[in-house]
């Protein structure tokens, strides 16, 4: 130590920043003597290096020229990380419900820690070993999803409080996109940068046609309007040439009801969308180049309008209507009716505000959610779009009632359901029938939650279960449909209603309903209930990419999934039989392979 401490401080710092040393090593070194303690002071390079090594994603939150107490930052971030892990682990031991999630978010907020510390720890959990800690990741993802959505809703409310002229359609579309895709890396800055690239391409095309065009002199961020209609026409021609001919943007006629068509970041990536999303892109580009297009809430087919007079006009015949979905086709007022095959009044040709545009955009997503197959994905889209719609228009009784019914149907957030119903009753007393029914059943739900029924424990050793061949965690293949899946539950006999049994033609099976049935998570993201005779162990077990896998399993072990604590409690004898079934299956398959 004597020789080491004789070295200059700069050289000691360099040595102590060697990548093999971690924070525990630095703590131990700083305790050896005053000299090394001073070299490892909080604002020095050593702790700055440790912090950057441990949490590289957080560097963007620090100014390069500022001085920080890195030891204090390290301790705070380390403590926040431990507390967040404890919170996630605590809800991992209970099944996920919205109430638990809300409480957990409140627990994280109550830490008083910087928001980016919390998010970084949750991301750290999600990015850990792919096959392990699946249950921890499942709940970390739920909390991060909820956490980001709350922030985006706050941003949307601030956006809506601005004067209408300061509400950009693009920014509103990005907020909708972010709320529905909170785990995606969607930012206004990245979207704006991509749009700026398209703008530059349009300018390049414009320069070839008219090298002195006024729009070419405009700098990024300039807000201007071309007074000359001919200059505007040149911009529109250049925009159509670049967007539709050069970049090949088009309306998605083949997959119109795909929600990706409504998300602006997906429109830019896939170069396709629906009338409203393509109109937002088209209008944003045109305005950046001096053409003041306006959004038109035309029924069934969103349009833009372009005034042909020097002054703003109320006459619908003073406008050309642009169909961004139809490659920028220009239509006269009454020609628009050909798009929808019926006549409409003059009101439908009026320009609308950004908040009205967002309601139309969110309404489209809402309808897609309602059209869904009743799976986790469609329910999530329905919930997200209802949240957005009611943030923009909080007193819409129809959608408030739909939100209350949705939460009631899913059995989540009963206290919030009561708040929604109370709000509906205040807005529209004529809804007392529907409100009263839901209030009564929601109160029963709350009472039931206070005295929960214990889950049935299923033991394979019981006589009634002797016909059950397969265990939870096994990777299976459906003999008829061919899908891959993992078992997360079973019944010794089919427990579905007679109506379901008839609809699914269970009676056509050789053993009908009088055989074990299995709850399975399918590779395509659905959950199904399959008869034993239709399932067989997969010959080459693979991971099942289903969003709910982490809810039931903690790890994938190459041949099967290992159940988490909750599932093991319900199926205590399945764990050993899973290993046995896997071994037996491979032994049999191996023998067959050798025989052939």
Automatic annotation (TrEMBL):
Q: Which InterPro entries match?
A: F-box-like_dom_sf, F-box_dom, Hemimethylated_DNA-bd_dom, Hemimethylated_DNA-bd_sf, SirB1_N
Q: Name one Pfam family in it.
A: YccV-like
Domain Hemimethylated DNA-binding residue range list:
467-564
Single GO molecular function: DNA binding
- The identity of this protein, by name, is F-box protein 21
């Amino acid at each position: 130590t004597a020789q080491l401490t004789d070295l200059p401080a700069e050289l000691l710092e360099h040595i102590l920043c060697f990548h093999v040393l971690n924070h525990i090593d630095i703590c131990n070194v700083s305790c050896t003597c005053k000299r090394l303690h001073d070299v490892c002071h909080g604002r020095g390079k050593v702790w700055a290096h440790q912090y950057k090594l441990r949490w590289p994603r957080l560097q963007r939150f620090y100014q390069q020229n500022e001085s920080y107490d890195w030891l204090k930052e390290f301790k705070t971030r380390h403590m926040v990380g431990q507390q967040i892990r404890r919170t996630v682990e605590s809800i991992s031991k209970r099944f996920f419900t919205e109430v638990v999630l809300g409480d957990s978010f409140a627990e994280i907020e109550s830490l008083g820690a910087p928001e980016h510390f919390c998010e970084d720890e949750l991301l750290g959990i999600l990015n850990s070993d792919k096959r392990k800690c699946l249950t921890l990741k499942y709940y970390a993802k739920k909390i991060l999803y909820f956490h980001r959505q709350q922030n985006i809703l706050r941003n949307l409310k601030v956006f809506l409080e601005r004067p209408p002229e300061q509400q950009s359609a693009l920014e509103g579309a990005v907020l909708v996109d972010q709320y529905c895709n909170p785990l995606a890396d969607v930012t206004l800055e990245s979207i704006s940068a991509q749009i700026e690239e398209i703008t530059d391409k349009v300018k390049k095309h414009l320069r070839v046609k008219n090298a002195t065009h006024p729009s070419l002199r405009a700098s990024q961020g300039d807000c201007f309007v071309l007074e000359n209609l001919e200059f505007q026409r040149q911009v529109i021609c250049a925009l159509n040439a670049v967007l539709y001919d050069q970049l090949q943007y088009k309306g998605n006629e083949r997959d119109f009801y795909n929600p990706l068509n409504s998300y602006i970041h997906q429109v830019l990536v896939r170069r396709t969308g629906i009338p409203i999303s393509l109109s937002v892109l088209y209008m944003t580009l045109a305005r950046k180049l001096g053409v003041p297009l306006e959004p038109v809430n035309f029924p069934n087919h969103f349009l833009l309008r372009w005034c042909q007079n020097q002054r703003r006009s109320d006459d619908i015949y003073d406008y050309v209507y642009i169909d961004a979905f139809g490659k920028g086709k220009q239509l006269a007022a009454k020609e628009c009716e050909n798009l929808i095959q019926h006549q409409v009044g003059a009101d439908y040709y009026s320009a609308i505000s950004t908040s009205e545009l967002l309601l139309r955009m969110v309404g489209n997503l809402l309808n897609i959610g309602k059209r869904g197959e009743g799976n986790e994905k469609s329910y999530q889209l329905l919930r997200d779009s209802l949240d957005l719609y009611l943030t923009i228009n909080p007193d819409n009784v129809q959608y408030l009632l739909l939100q209350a019914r949705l939460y009631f149907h899913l059995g989540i957030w009963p206290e919030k359901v009561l708040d929604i119903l109370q709000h509906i009753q205040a807005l529209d007393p004529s809804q007392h029938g529907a409100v009263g029914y839901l209030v009564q059943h929601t109160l029963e739900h709350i009472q039931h939650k206070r005295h929960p029924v214990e889950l049935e424990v299923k033991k394979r050793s019981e006589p009634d279960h002797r016909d059950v061949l397969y265990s939870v965690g096994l990777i299976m293949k459906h003999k008829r449909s061919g899908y891959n899946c993992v078992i997360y539950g079973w019944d010794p006999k089919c427990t579905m209603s007679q109506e379901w049994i008839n609809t699914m033609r269970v009676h056509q099976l050789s053993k009908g309903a009088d055989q074990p049935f299995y709850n399975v998570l399918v590779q395509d993201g659905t959950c199904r209930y399959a008869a034993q005779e239709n399932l067989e162990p997969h010959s080459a077990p693979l991971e099942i990419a289903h969003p709910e896998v982490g809810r039931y399993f903690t790890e994938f072990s190459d041949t099967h999934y290992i159940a988490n604590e909750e599932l093991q409690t319900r199926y205590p004898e399945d764990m050993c039989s899973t290993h046995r079934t896997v071994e037996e299956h491979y032994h049999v398959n191996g023998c067959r392979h050798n025989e052939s």
